[in-house]
C-alpha cells in the first residue's frame, strides 16, 4: 500500500512539473541585441558575393546616405532594404542564402550590446524561456539567436518553391507583422506565463508586445518608442560606448 502511495505521489509530482508554466522574456533583435540589422548585413553580403546584382544596392543607397547624414529616418532605410531583398531574392536557392547567413553570423554574432547580452545570460540562469521576435529573415535569425541561448525564434519566413528557390513572397506576413500575436502564440505553444515576464525592444513596432509583459524595457529607443515609454513610465535604458544608464 505504501509503495502504491509513493507511486501515486510521484505521478502527481510529475504531472505538476509538466504543467508548470515557465516565465518568458521576449526580445527584439536588430538594434536591441545585435548592434546593426541582420537584414542589412545579409543584403550587403549578397551584393558583395554577386548573388544580388549591383542594381539592388540602388534601391536602398539613397535612404542609407540620408540616414548616415542624419537627414532621413532609419525606418525608411530599412524599408528600402526589405524591398530590395524581396525583389532580388526571387530565384535564389535557399542553400545560397543559408550559406551567406552562416558566413555573416560567424563573422558578426558577437557584435552585440553588452546590456542585453548580459541580461540574456542572467535570465537564462533564472530559467526564463528566451523568445526572439524579429522582422529579419528567419534564415538569419536561426543562425544568430541560438548562439545567445534563445529557446525559440520568430522571424520573417520567405516562401520557396518545389526546387527550394525563393518566390519573393512572405509566408503569414500578417502574423509576423504583429509581435503581440506572436507572443500569444508562443505562450500557448510553449506553456509559458506572462507573470513576471520581461520584454525588451527599441522601436514603436515593439510596443505591441511591451504592452503585454510585466516588465517592459525600452533599450536605445527611437523617438516614437521613447515618447510612448515616458507616457507609460516604462524603464528606458541607453548604452552608449562603454556606459549603460537609465533616462
Structure overview:
The structure is a single chain. The chain has helices spanning 2-19, 38-48, 55-68, 74-88, 94-108, 114-125, 138-144, 173-176, 179-190, 207-210, 223-232; strands at 22-27, 129-137, 152-160, 166-171, 192-201, 215-219, 235-240, 243-246. It is α/β, with parallel strands linked by helices and 247 residues long. The chain has a single domain (21-246), classed as 3-Layer(aba) Sandwich (Rossmann fold). An 8-stranded mixed sheet has the order 4-3-2-1-5-6-7-8, sandwiched between helices. A hairpin with a 5-residue loop joins strand 3 (152-160) and strand 4 (166-171).
Brief summary of the model shown:
The protein has 247 residues and is an alpha/beta fold. The chain is 49% helix and 22% strand. It is built from eleven helices and eight strands.
| Secondary structural class | alpha/beta
The main β sheet shows up as: 8 strands, mixed
Computed Rg: 21 Å
N- and C-termini, Cα separation: 63 Å
The largest beta-sheet arranges its strands as 4-3-2-1-5-6-7-8
| CATH topology-level fold name | Rossmann fold
CATH A-level architecture: 3-Layer(aba) Sandwich
Order of helices and strands: HEHHHHHEHEEHHEHEHEE
What is the domain tally?
1
Classify the beta-strand content into a percent band.
15-25%
By CATH's scheme, which homologous superfamily applies?
Answer: HAD superfamily/HAD-like
Question: Roughly what is the average pLDDT, rounded to an integer?
Answer: 90
- What is the helical fraction, as a range of percent? 40-55%
- Count of helical stretches: 11
Question: At the first level of CATH, what is the class?
Answer: Alpha Beta
Q: List how many beta strands DSSP finds.
A: 8
Sum up the overall morphology in one term: globular
Low-confidence spans: pLDDT under 50, at least 5 residues? 9-17
Pfam families: HAD (PF12710)
Catalytic activity: O-phospho-L-serine + H2O = L-serine + phosphate; O-phospho-D-serine + H2O = D-serine + phosphate
Keywords: Amino-acid biosynthesis, Hydrolase, Magnesium, Metal-binding, Serine biosynthesis
Cofactor: Mg(2+)
